[in-house]
Batch of 2 targets.
Target 1
Amino acid sequence: MSEDNEIMIGLVAGSGFDMESSGVELQKMPDVEFVGKIPKADIITPYGAPSSDISILRVRGVLVAVILRHGEGHQLPPHLVPYRANSWIIKALGAHIHIQFTAVGSLQDHINYGDVAVVRVLENATERPLPDLLEDVRVAIHPSLAEQTCDVLPKLASEAFRKAGVSNVHQQAAHVTIPGPAFAPKFKERQWKDTGYDLIGMTSVRPSLVLRQLRQHWVEIAIPTDSSSIGDDEEVNALLVSRRMKGLEQLISTGFCNFVEVLGSKLHLVDCACHWPMEVANMSKKITVEAERRLILSEKPHPYSCGWSKLIS
Ligand SMILES: [Zn+2]
């Protein structure tokens, strides 16, 4: 179990969490205590401000830092989300586990509204390179993305959502990320479906390199809210996504609380390749002080992880 004031887990919550009472409200769930908010104006990262204020929640005894990916009221389109700042501050606050919640479209007949999909494959179809923590400091490292998410967390997440009552949990989902902010044309969705992809969205792959550079254990939990390419009568739009996420609020919240509880008690079981060794990363001759700051390499607690409670408003 974690120390009383140690943030163990970061959560980046996407569409459906950022519309206040019309979206999922984790902080109002019975097993969740709202500890406070760190204003984003008080946070300094090498990459600017995060998407939103950071809510600190105590979930069944475990402290979780929550960022709204698109900001309060869904202000930021997918290509303007500060993925680097969001990921960096979660690690700086002390978290080694990074959970990403994403509303997605289903591309396959067997994945439906009410299911949960845990993602293992991420395709970058955004037409942009992945955000990189080191791109402007003249240090090149090449971590492996052979496994794109943590090896261990998907199984634990799947068990947590089954325990919450989800009948169909898809544990090995393949997710394609499109440019956005527009939803994809139907003919493109059919192409991705025929290629074998399960899910389609606008954000998921974008922080994957950054999270590997930060050596975070990370997992994506995707909530299928629509399936426009496979016969859904209702055309997908932002209001539909938010309404359907709200409809699953109890299920999502209970599954999340179950997952956090397991992570709080079984962190020592997380034994995976996320802490890849720098030595094999074909890196530049010398890691500079600035690169170390960006990668948060020091084993010492970061000033944010020791001092976050002073920033609570
Ligand atoms: Zn891991």
Target 2
Amino acid sequence: MTNKNHLSEAFKQTKHQIVGHGRRDIQTLKEALKDIDGQQESDMYGTGKIIDDFQTKMARFLGKEAAVFFPSGTMAQQIALRIWCDRKGLKKVAYHPLCHLEIHEEDGLKELHHIEPILLADKNRVIQLEDVVGMKEEVSCLLLELPQREIGGQLPDYKTLVSISTYCREKGIKLHLDGARLFEVLPYYQKTAAEICELFDSVYVSFYKGIGGLAGAILAGDESFTNESKVWKRRHGGDLISLYPYIISADYYFEQRLHKMNQYYQESIELASLFNQCHSVSTIPSEPVSNMFHVHFDGSKEKVEAILIDIYQKTGIGLTGNLREVNKKESYYEVSIGDRYADVPKEELKKVFDVLDKSMRAIS
Ligand SMILES: Cc1ncc(COP(=O)(O)O)c(C=O)c1O
């Protein structure tokens, strides 16, 4: 068994796990369906009451004219950027070097749509107005990912968002929001979803991250944009004959969890502060701005994995099943707070950090 398996096995065997909502098992769907009338008609190839109602609900919530349900954010966002590029007749977009399209989609944007990305900003920080103003090349669209997941979920401040939005409108650059975790950042901004989305021409949100549904995404914008996106959805094979398991679960967990985003955010601040009190451990950002952050260890992956496994066995509390190497002397993992954190006994949690602090001292 590799170390990684040791860690993930030890994690699975703990009584309490402090991240996420729970196991991704079939019960997630069964629960969402429990009060649904079985005689209801399925959606059919992107039409029907179930999909129409949810799209209308989300368009309203996001303050946009219209919305379209997609099986994945990957599909929705490539299509959004394609539409903006076609409209301007320029196949260039700008985004962060660590955004999802650049590092997790096997170059779909380049291979399928022949769109060239311009990478903005240093990879360890978020895009600022100066990066946009200083762009040497013309682009059709700028994509902002809020929060910027791969750097611990950092965010630009609201003033920066407004200034980027104003600048893009003046220059005829469309602004697209990768809001995979938009719901999760609303408590930090103290804004409604519609107030944030108002700054953007098109918006994508996800239903299986903080919301915890099965899968699925909404792409929203004005009606001519969303109508065009439906054509591309058909071309991409995204019009599954029935999407209702995804739509019903998206709606169910949206209702269950939207109002808990502030709780997750506050819990994430609390948890980050516990990590930051430990020797050779720090979080990025130092104070989280959403339910997520990264935990960095001044210790090799091998050594820290051994420490984590020991903690799991001593306390019955699991922190992560997946530690990643930064270099030979540092390692990190991503935290995303969901329903589980509230169930972890605080006294037990204190023990975790006592052991972590001592063990990190011992290896430094
Ligand atoms: C920031 C961000 N954008 C886009 C996506 C793509 O979403 P999907 O898995 O629905 O394709 C993800 C998925 O993890 C993401 O984290």
